[in-house]
Amino acid sequence: MATKNCPETPRQKMINMMYLVLTALLALNVASEVLESFRIVDTSLGQTLNNVKRKNDQIYGAFDMAYRQNPAKVKDWKDKADQVKVKTSVLITKIIDLKEQLVLASGGVPLKSIQPDFKLKEEPFIVNSKGDTIVMKKEDDLNTPSEIMIKQKKATDLRNLIKEYREYMVTNLEAGSPLRENILKQLDTPDGRIDLSEGGEKKNWESLYFESKPLIAVVTLLSKIQIDIENAETNIISTLYSQIDAASFKFNRLGARILAKSTYVLEGDQFEAEIYLAAEDTTQQPEIYVNNTKLSMRDGMGIYKATATHEGTFKWDGLIKYKTPEGNIKPYPFKGEYQVGKPSVTISPTKMNVMYMGVANPISVSVPGVASQNLEVSVSNGGRMEKNGDSYFCYPSKLDALGKNTAISVFANTNGIKRPMGSMAFRVKEVPPPLATIAGLNGGTLKKEDLLVEGGVFAELKDFDFDLKFHVTQFDITVSGAYVKTSSSKSNKFTDEQKSMFGKLATGSMIYIDNIMAKGDDGSNRPLANIFFKIK
């Protein structure tokens, strides 16, 4: 209406044209601080993505272990998890390939084709699906992302792939479940809202996130989408894994069951047990008797209590009377026993449940009321237990930083029956790297005369309680002062050349020791951190 009543003059048209040009120039002038922020965010997203991948790998590993132990029980859930893994891998690979296409099209260069002295930290980079590193040369490129994502409709293709993946994933969840709604929201690709400041224009998802955006911003957004997909995968496979046991409760017979709070009680305490009929009809409750005394009921279970007055093993029995569907009363007899012992305690540091690879991890196991010779101790995840008197040594075979797959289980052989007594999860870590030292020092200042009497470089494990030693197998020494010279040793000993170099050092000279390797008693080879000294 305004343009009809007030036609634009030539001068006004020129001003409008200049405004459009300035706006375009402003859009092209992306501040370096903004680009740096995107680099930092993308790096952080990469670290988060690696953490999520490790978590998912552990869950899939748990599926594999459960399947080996009980294929019939686990197969259906594992098959679903494997399908989720394949679909996730396909979509993630397509996103990584899209990143590679964007970076290469904007002038990106594979790292292996760059000169050897190139420093990777100075420029952003991506890693393609083959594991090759590609350096991003034009992180502020606005044209290439728009060309590929908008004109070539790669953004639309990606949106359709995410939608297809989202719809498949929620088929593994019950309708209306909170997790289902969360994944639908997490993987949603909605169009933008109407922006009145831009004339009421409504941008679609593709334009909102990929049109006229700098390359580094587009790559960062794709990394964020990867994390959303991996998180959705985590939620789905965790749910599927939890269904293994949830789906295994199949009842095919009636029988008396005793659920005791503990089969071992202390003198002066009470023994308490809940007695119930497995697969009980919730519309009726059985009658439960112990020593001809009818028990009080709680949620279909009879509660039996007996005061422990002295040590020993006490047997007891009773009868459950249950009305069958035909109306007949059918008895189900049961027997039980409990032990009473003197008070004792076993204290375990729950925050220190850590074992280390390559060393004999001492484990102390005790079960009140059961002699040590009647105990069987085993470790999962391919580890090995070795008995040492009344204690044990554990030798884990695989790293397990979160303690998801490694557990020590204890069984008691009593009255010819092998009974599980419990298990405890352990984290399995590598032995911490040793420190390179000279004269017991890991760096700092060193007297020339002290250096001359030393024989070489040593590896020390600081504050590590296990009897494990490392021996230095090589190192390089560079001295700087009046001159700079480097000399190598293929053992932990100083060479004659190195000793000669030490004799020429003046006060204030610097000694750098790098390329240090050490071999442990466990056979592992470790690179050690560089150290340096100043001669005083």
Annotation keywords:
30 strands; 4 domains; 34% helix; single chain; alpha+beta; five-stranded mixed beta sheet
Number of strands: 30
Q: Which descriptor suits the 3D outline? A: flat
Binned, the helix content reads: 25-40%
- Beta-strand content: 25-35%
What structural category characterises the helix and strand content?
alpha+beta
Low-confidence stretches are 1-9, 11-29, 247-253
In total, the number of domains comes to: 4
Give the rounded overall mean pLDDT: 79
Q: What is the number of helices? A: 11
Describe this structure in words.
By secondary structure, the chain is α+β, with helices and mostly antiparallel strands. The chain folds into 4 domains: 26-193 and 203-246; 256-341, Immunoglobulin-like; 353-429, Immunoglobulin-like, CATH 2.60.40; 435-535, no CATH class. Helix content is 34%, strand content 29%. Strand 4 and strand 5 form a beta hairpin. The longest helix has 38 residues, at 32-69. It is flat and about 100 Å long. Residues 1-9, 11-29 and 247-253 have low confidence and may be disordered.
